[in-house]
Design a protein that fits this description.
Layout: E1 27-28, E2 31-32, E3 40-41, H1 43-50, H2 54-62, E4 69-71, E5 74-78, H3 79-90
Antiparallel strand pairs: 1-2, 3-5, 4-5
Length: 91
Amino acid sequence: MTRGAIYAPCGKAGSIDRGHNPANIIYLGGHSMFENYPDVLNVEHLCEILGIGKKLVYRLLKNNDIEHLQIGRSYRIPKPNLVQYLLKQSA
């Protein structure tokens, strides 16, 4: 096991070491939870990952609950920002 990872074998919650880069610490069964997604996410990716609708995603972004970049009218969310949001929600 790698120090600083969240381990969830068989779907059970594991430990968190907050001293490491959040983008590299989320593992599920030895695999990164977000490895099938690009390093910079969009609104549709957040909908899939979080299992919520676009309206709620836009509300989270507008309220700066999830740190993001806005380029024109589109939002871009680096993976570490999503992981930080998830860790804040679980604390």
